[in-house]
């Protein structure tokens, strides 16, 4: 199974304001556009092909009328279940042949919805189209990835996004998208399930003193996924108590710990030199 990390959804009340705050940190983002039939809009911050999607709702009436949150297993169903609280919601993994993937996941006991064709319009009027596949594990509260097929090769897409100024090589070099950290209650079960379902390799269990957590990494092109179970009173314990199992931290540095900046309900781990408080 050919799977790469594509992006993480950061649900925010005001995508433009969050984008402006990221700019103060030296993080480039661009207006993605509007999902016109759902009443939602986004800003995108790319680090190569891996990116953070700042996703918000610009028309709540349209959002309700079109029942965007009622799409089975979709990110907005997750966001609604979470009470529309700001923070990281779901990750998307990039692949092709979503029909074959759906069959594989169903054979492993997971529920799926799709592929579903979607689109949004860029500020310049260009219509962008893609397909999504949603998945769900009835036995866990940890939101599963959803899957995206952009209908083009990584090479062609990187070239197009670079020419449009959406991908900037300088940002990719100074801010490597190294990992997404998830809070989990059962480390072994969560890692073994995702390894099997998505054909991933894992590293050894380790203790992260900063997170006060017992952790294990799943390796993935585009970024790594780190599962963290509480090992004392720390941020992982707090996230589990307050928000449950979920992605809660994105690391944009090769430093072991770096500098943690809370932004709109999510934690961004940045190089120490980015600390605004210094």
Structural notes for this entry:
The chain is of the alpha+beta class and 278 residues long. The chain folds into two domains: 3-167, 2,3-Dihydroxybiphenyl 1,2-Dioxygenase, domain 1 (Roll); 171-274, 2,3-Dihydroxybiphenyl 1,2-Dioxygenase, domain 1. It is 25% helix and 37% strand. It has eight helices and 16 strands. It has helices at residues 15-24, 60-65, 75-81, 98-107, 154-163, 169-174, 187-198, 235-242; strands at 4-11, 30-35, 40-47, 50-57, 87-94, 111-121, 127-136, 146-149, 179-183, 201-202, 206-208, 213-219, 224-230, 246-251, 259-263, 266-270. The chain has an eight-stranded mixed sheet with strand order 2-3-4-1-5-8-7-6. Strands 9, 10, 11, 12, 13, 14, 15 and 16 form an eight-stranded mixed sheet that branches. β3 and β4 form a beta hairpin. The chain is globular. The model has no long low-confidence stretch (mean pLDDT 93).
Can you tag this structure with a few keywords?
278 residues; alpha+beta; 2,3-Dihydroxybiphenyl 1,2-Dioxygenase, domain 1; 2 domains; eight-stranded mixed β-sheet; Glyoxalase-like domain-containing protein; Glyas_Bleomycin-R_OHBP_Dase
CATH superfamily descriptor of the largest domain: 2,3-Dihydroxybiphenyl 1,2-Dioxygenase, domain 1
Give the tally of structural domains: 2
Q: H/E order of the elements?
A: EHEEEHHEHEEEHHEHEEEEHEEE
In the CATH classification, which architecture of the largest domain applies? Answer: Roll
The coarse silhouette is: globular
Widest sheet, order of strands: 2-3-4-1-5-8-7-6
The average pLDDT score comes to: 93
Largest sheet: 8 strands, mixed
Structural class: alpha+beta
Tally of DSSP helical segments: 8
What percent of residues are in strands? 35-45%
Any idea what the radius of gyration is?
18 Å
Pfam family, one: Glyoxalase_3
Protein name: Glyoxalase-like domain-containing protein
InterPro entries: Glyas_Bleomycin-R_OHBP_Dase, Glyoxalase-like_dom
